[in-house]
Amino acid sequence: KLHSDLDKGVGTVKYTLSGDGAGTVFTIDETTGDIHAIRSLDREEKPFYTLRAQAVDVDTKKPLEPESEFIIKVQDINDNEPKFLDGPYVASVPEMSPVGAYVLQVKATDADDPTYGNSARVVYSILQGQPYFSIDPKTGVIRTALPNMDREVKEQYQVLIQAKDMGGQLGGLAGTTTVNITLTDVNDNPPRFPKSIFHLKVPETSHVGSAIGRIRAVDPDFGKNAEIEYNIVPGDGGNLFDITTDEYTQEGVIKLKKPLDFETKKAYTFKVEASNLHLDHRFHSVGPFKDTATVKINVLDMDEPPVFSKPMYTMEVYEDTPVGTIIGAVTAQDLDAGSSSVRYFMDWKNDVDSYFTIDATEGTIATNELLDRESTAQYNFSIIASKVSNPLLTSKVNVIINVLDVNEFPPEISVPYETSVCENAKPGQVIQTITAADKDLSPAGQRFSFKLSSEASNKPNFTVHDYRNNTAGIETRRNGYSRRQQELYFLPIVIEDSSYPVQSSTNTLTIRVCRCDSDGTIQSCNVEAIFLPVGLSTGALIAILLCIVILLVIVVLYVALRRQKKKDTLMTSKEDIRDNVIHYDDEGGGEEDTQAFDIGALRNPKVIEDNKIRRDIKPDTLRFTRHRPPAEDNTDIRDFINQRLKENDVDPSAPPYDSLATYAYEGNGSVAESLSSIDSLTTEADQDYDYLSDWGPRFKILADMFGEENYDPDKVT
């Protein structure tokens, strides 16, 4: 209620209200000044309101007093229950936890004023979930209330929690939430086999490494705590089997390590142990976390293929053995109880298998063709054995046949040798070491012997020295050899082997005489090399020849250009009717220059160029055909020139003016006489060239060429 001292109660004063909530939440009586709430208030929505009030004159509308401000506070009542803002809750706790193990803390919020009364004081309690869990009434911490709660007995728990204000007193408001608690697993249970004996039946034909059965131990734990490892306890049959763990089913998979044979052993018994991989030390007192069971395996008899007595057969036979000769046998048996007969046949794969045959009943192998070790030294094929009672059951074995050598080939020189001997060689000098080879398969310790043939042993040029180690040396027997006298020597060598029967062959070794320096280094081995400059290598000679070829090409190009220039000059001067003087200024090269002129052109008139008629002369008379008798090959050049001169004198088509024709001819009066040997009457054998030896060392090669004896074929060895 508002009241002004100036209000006399006569209705001259008017009260006004403004501010927070004026007109919407609060209203004022303009005459009396009473303030009323026009709707319900909520402290949790707005705890206080600030208002302004003023008294004004009704007539003048002027304020009678200054505006005053006041605050209206909303008093709290317990109208809000506690709420769990994070609920419902999910929690977990390990199984077998002790009493009081912490699980979770819950919290409820009350919107009432905590400073006024007990409206916001909350107390927690469990409505559902006892006696397994407990809660602190003030803090809301949930803990285990029973010891050794077992996950394998019960895993999930749902606990209902209540929060009540007013300190839990009667009349307080309450709120609830749910807490889902899960017991997590610990390894508190060992694996256990559901039965003590497992029986398995396994066919004897089971393959090594195949799974033949499964056993399983049960572990109520979960996850890694339930992982089991299986092991075979050493004992009867344990070495024939193995066991592994299936990681998905945790079963023990028994596998075969070695083949089974019903005829050898029909049953096996061994023990298998199952244990946990991850142990918890807190539960060691419970006992060993493992269990043992017995496995009995019965081997089932199956119809099996025949079994060969050996995994592989190796046989030997001499080459050229007659067809049909038995070289060995294979044996296979039916080990089953019925013991069926066995039949043998070859596994045909290629033509090589046709060299042998096998007896279907006895299994003996014989040759079907003649064998040649030099063609094929070893044969590899397969033999198949099948049961008569069940031909589909077969087994296979490899057979290797080695062809033994028969001494049928003589030894020969292993490689072609290029043997040379120096001209200045001394007696007893080894010029070549030779070895031999035999196409036969040489047995251990076989020896080859070397010697000269009987016709060559009497010649004093070379000898063969056998070193007794399958090698031999070629030694000289003369003091010096001459290339001019004999360039090649052919030495027949007889080589024998030590096998039976003894085989031998005669091999011819070619020995070339070469020029060597004083140290024995070969300089040249061919006859033409004697004319080459001494001391020049092959590369240098090739370079010199290339230079000569280049110079010749340059000279030819130069001459061709000059002739082309002269031809152009003559073509221009043909229009001149004056005397034509043809001048040849080429200098001859003498008798040795065969390129200066063609002697055949002088001797053969058919190659002479036909006469040409001058352009400025047109003869009235008919030209006579010039009959040129062919010159004989032995016609003297002088007669040939005279004949041509007469022809020109009587030829009416010849130019009327002077013309100069030049003919070159050498007379018989040469002071130096002819150096040619064409007309020499004596032969080379009639001449004496001993005087060349007196001209000095530069003419030594020339003296050797013309001073040696003629070639004697009888001296060739």
TrEMBL record:
Residues 4-84, 85-193, 194-308, 309-413, 413-531 form the Cadherin domain. The keyword ATP-binding does not apply. The keyword Amino-acid biosynthesis does not apply. The gene is Cdh12. It comes from Sterrhoptilus dennistouni. It is found in: Cell membrane. One of its GO terms (biological process) is homophilic cell adhesion via plasma membrane adhesion molecules. Pfam families: CADH_Y-type_LIR, Cadherin. It is a single-pass type I membrane protein. GO terms for molecular function: beta-catenin binding; cadherin binding; calcium ion binding. Keywords: Calcium, Cell adhesion, Cell membrane, Cleavage on pair of basic residues, Glycoprotein, Membrane, Metal-binding, Phosphoprotein, Repeat, Signal, Transmembrane, Transmembrane helix. GO terms for cellular component: adherens junction; catenin complex. This is Cadherin-12. Coiled coil: none annotated. The chain crosses the membrane at residues 530-561. Cadherins are calcium-dependent cell adhesion proteins. They preferentially interact with themselves in a homophilic manner in connecting cells; cadherins may thus contribute to the sorting of heterogeneous cell types.
